[in-house]
TrEMBL record:
Catalytic component of the NuA4 histone acetyltransferase (HAT) complex which is involved in epigenetic transcriptional activation of selected genes principally by acetylation of nucleosomal histones H4, H3, H2B, H2A and H2A variant H2A.Z. Acetylates histone H4 to form H4K5ac, H4K8ac, H4K12ac and H4K16ac, histone H3 to form H3K14ac, and histone H2A to form H2AK4ac and H2AK7ac. The NuA4 complex is involved in the DNA damage response and is required for chromosome segregation. The NuA4 complex plays a direct role in repair of DNA double-strand breaks (DSBs) through homologous recombination. InterPro entries: Acyl_CoA_acyltransferase (IPR016181), BTB/POZ_dom (IPR000210), HAT_MYST-type (IPR002717), MYST_HAT (IPR050603), SKP1/BTB/POZ_sf (IPR011333), WH-like_DNA-bd_sf (IPR036388), Zf-MYST (IPR040706). This is histone acetyltransferase. PROSITE patterns: BTB, MYST_HAT. CDD domains: BTB_POZ_ZBTB_KLHL-like (cd18186). Its EC number is 2.3.1.48. It comes from Pyrenophora tritici-repentis (strain Pt-1C-BFP) (Wheat tan spot fungus).
Length: 788
């Protein structure tokens, strides 16, 4: 359940509640949510049926919605002691008891209720404090009997009284009108004095100064200025919108109740799906009209009305269609948060969108919505390099990216044994729990089926989405012949591995996978990469390690299988990208420790003897090397990021391999003459790892510089290709800066402190993590692979 978001104009105002009760006659059967209908100043109770979708709570006997109008609230009561989670709200005919999940939410709601009461001029509303927490938490606590209520008698009404607004009464009668608005063949008598005060557009039109005053506010390409001036002289104007849109717009200007912007809880949430779609399209047309005619106050109301209604639209196609309309090129840029709100909703609804054929087709054909989702998730990250971006079409592969650099977990791999017969087959166990979003696509099916005698999936099945489980959905992974314990769930397709599997077998060379041991052993004996290097181009070889560059577009299958395996060791902030837009850099260890013995396929006594004779062919990772980690980066990064995701596989962590990958990314930046760094914001572990690399690199550069040479931040930038803000932050973390002015600078680097820091941290000041001479000489590709 989402937390309270009362300070976010791009989202609904909603709080999770543990339970609620109505006058001790009705109690909620399960947790619910409390939603504020901002356009109508009403609160309602709803139940979440799936992420992003809710239904109204209703009374069992009458099937009426459980809600209340703020202008009818008599009083509220709680206990201000930082421990009370209960708030009681007293209406004329009932009392609503709300039990929030945390104390802060109760306080936020009460504050919001008081402010909304002031906004709607409810002068009788009062907030009371109970004498004790024990008293208010009694099930039979009654505000009226306990004396926590004023005695003002108010009528209970479901629909606001139109006569409370004088302008509403005048509009309905048409009395004293002096101007006419025409739309769709209908004429609407209006009053210039009101229109002119509400809208700069109508003010210019009524004054006959359209061509002078309105030039900065309205797009002239859609208007005939001469015709407008002529009509103005006749005290009328014809608008191009439909009569329905103009009618509702004028009703909002005159504060007249209308069915389009009326109560969510009584007039929208309980409607049929087709009616909901019509109302949402009407609201969107209304929003456009408000924007065009400079009706800013009620434009905000339309925005809130659209956002607050999104959760009651269960049809994924309707959500995608709404998003496509809002992200249309002709839609106004000043959208009051509509784009952010709808794209956040698309993110929540992505699994069901992928499940629905029509919704998925609409989503895939619209380039603006996937692009917006990608951008939104990057902006929302609070500790990751990348973002969760869905596949752009059902036929394209996806991969994940993550900022996690060597997650802080104990090493959990054990040697399974040199003989394959020691790998006891375990059938997958499927538990009744939610599954993870399936990111496999049609190109994955042949890949997995290559371990089988017959394909096991169809393209349609591969679009099925899964919801991410809370814990690892794969309990054990056999990687070659190493047994590894995953840390996080991955998104292997449910149709191929099940919702939860005890043991997954992954090829150490090509990363293909299966749940069946026999198929795994058969594949290992015939894997095309068994005696060959990985696909791609070697770009670096030094000592025991090599780097291979893989183009995700040319090697989609390999990149996706690598990503699915990596997700088992990356947390929930991991992200998915279309692999075609990324380059992957594989770190190959020629003599890895631990090494992976090749599985054996017989029971003859000569097997162990062969294994002990040092035959390199018997060691699965010795002949051509073993992939022990990788990093990826975008081919075209607008921020000049040189790294998007980095991971060293658990069996080979704590060996400094992450520093090699970081060093390689910066060396490639230097060769390409592109100043950059890792994608930000960094996670906590990512920042620790990069601070470690930056500090060692800066210490090495400073110590090896000429004694009397003055180094500036720009000098360090040019030598290391680390961006200035990272240099400054790292030097501060190393505590090597002195706050004294010299040469126009506010601080100077104490070289003696740098030496002390290097000695205390065991830094090799003469040698970095990578040999800059060991890179393959080639033209700067600026992120484009030269793999042939």
């Amino acid at each position: 359940m989402p937390p309270s978001v009362i300070n976010n104009e791009h989202a609904s105002v909603i709080w999770p509640i543990q339970s609620f009760a109505v006058s001790n006659d009705f109690k909620s059967p399960r947790p619910a949510s409390l939603l504020l209908d901002r356009a109508n100043s009403e609160f309602g109770i709803l139940y979440e049926t799936e992420p992003g979708v809710s239904v109204m709570a209703q009374f069992l006997d009458t099937e009426e919605a459980v809600y209340f109008q703020v202008f009818k609230v008599r009083a509220a009561c709680t206990r201000f002691n930082n421990t009370c989670k209960k708030v009681c709200v007293l209406m004329q005919h009932f009392q609503l008891d709300l039990h929030f999940t945390i104390v802060a939410h109760a306080a936020e709601f009460l504050q919001k209720l008081a402010r909304t009461a002031t906004k709607v001029s409810n002068l009788h509303f009062e907030v009371h404090e109970a004498v004790s927490k024990a008293a208010i938490e009694r099930p039979n606590f009654n505000m009226e009997k306990e004396g926590y209520a004023n005695q003002i008698n108010q009528q209970w009404m479901a629909i606001p009284d139109e006569t409370t607004s004088e302008w509403a009464r005048i509009y309905k009668t048409g009395k004293c009108s002096d101007f006419t608005v025409i739309a769709g063949g209908r004429m609407f008598p209006v009053h210039r004095v009101l229109l002119c005060t509400r809208s700069q557009y109508f003010n210019a039109v009524c004054d006959g100064q359209f061509s002078v005053n309105l030039r900065d506010h309205v797009d002239y390409r859609i208007w005939d200025s001469a015709n407008i001036v002529k009509e103005t002289e006749e005290r009328s104007i014809t608008l191009p919108e439909s009569d329905q849109t103009v009618s509702t717009m004028l009703q909002e200007i005159y504060e007249v109740y209308n069915s389009t912007t009326s109560s969510i809880f009584t007039s929208f949430a309980l409607r049929r799906e087709m009616e909901k779609d019509r109302v949402m399209m009407d609201l969107l047309a209304l929003f456009v009209a408000f924007d065009k005619y400079n009706l800013e106050p009620i434009k905000q109301k339309a925005t809130e009305a659209i956002i607050d209604r999104m959760t009651f639209i269960p049809d994924p196609f309707s959500i995608v269609d709404l998003a496509a309309s809002i992200y249309d090129d002709n839609f106004f840029q000043n959208d009051r948060g509509l784009r952010k709100a709808i794209i956040a909703h698309v993110q929540m609804r992505l699994p069901t969108i992928m499940d629905d054929e029509a919704a998925w087709e609409e989503y895939s054909e619209n380039k603006a919505v996937p692009k917006a989702l990608h951008t939104h998730q990057r902006d929302m990250m609070d500790g990751a390099f990348g973002v969760l971006t869905p596949p752009v079409s059902p036929t394209k592969n996806n991969t994940l990216e993550s900022p996690m650099v060597q997650p802080r977990h104990p090493r959990t791999c054990t040697r399974v044994g040199a003989k394959a017969r020691l790998l006891n087959p375990v059938l997958p166990t499927i538990e009744p729990r939610e599954a993870a979003p399936c990111t496999a696509t049609t190109s994955m099916a042949p890949d997995v089926a290559s371990m089988s005698t017959t394909p096991t999936t169809t393209p349609a099945a591969l679009k099925t989405s899964q919801k991410p489980p809370t814990g690892p959905n794969v309990l054990e992974v056999v990687f070659g012949s190493l047994l590894v314990k995953p840390w996080y769930p991955s998104f292997y397709p449910e149709e191929l591995v099940g919702r939860r599997v005890d043991r997954l077998y992954v090829c150490q060379w090509c990363f293909k996978y299966t749940t069946e041991e026999v198929k795994f052993l058969g594949h290992m004996n015939a894997c095309p990469l068994r005696n060959d290097p990985p696909p791609g181009t070697p770009i670096y070889t030094a000592s025991n390690y090599s780097l291979y560059e893989i183009d995700g577009e040319k090697h989609k299958l390999y990149a996706q299988n690598l990503s699915l395996f990596a997700k088992l060791f990356l947390d929930t902030k991991s992200v998915f990208y279309d692999v075609t837009t990324f380059l992957y850099y594989l770190l190959i260890a020629h003599k890895p420790e631990p090494s992976i013995p090749k599985p054996r396929f017989g029971d003859g006594p000569d097997e162990e003897e062969e294994a002990t004779h040092g035959d390199d062919d018997n060691v699965g990772s010795a002949a051509k090397g073993q992939v022990v980690g990788f990093f990826s980066k975008e081919k075209m990064s607008w921020d000049n990021n040189n790294l998007a995701c980095i991971l060293v596989f658990p069996p080979w962590q704590k060996q400094g391999l992450g520093q090699i990958l970081m060093g390689a990314s910066y060396e490639m930046s230097r060769r390409e003459e592109r100043l950059g760094g890792p994608e930000k914001p960094l996670s906590d572990l990512g920042r620790i790892a990069y601070t470690h690399y930056w500090s060692q690199t800066l210490a090495r550069t400073i110590i090896n510089s000429p004694t009397k040479k003055t180094l500036t931040i720009h000098d360090l930038r040019d030598k290391t290709y680390i961006v200035p803000e990272d240099i400054i932050a790292t030097l501060q973390a190393m505590d090597v800066l002195e706050q004294r002015r010299k040469g126009g600078a506010d601080a100077v680097i104490n070289k003696a402190r740098v030496r002390m820091w290097a000695e205390s941290n065991g830094v090799d000041v003469m040698k970095g993590p990578v040999d800059t001479e060991a890179f393959v000489v080639r033209d700067a590709s600026r992120g484009v692979s030269e793999d042939g």
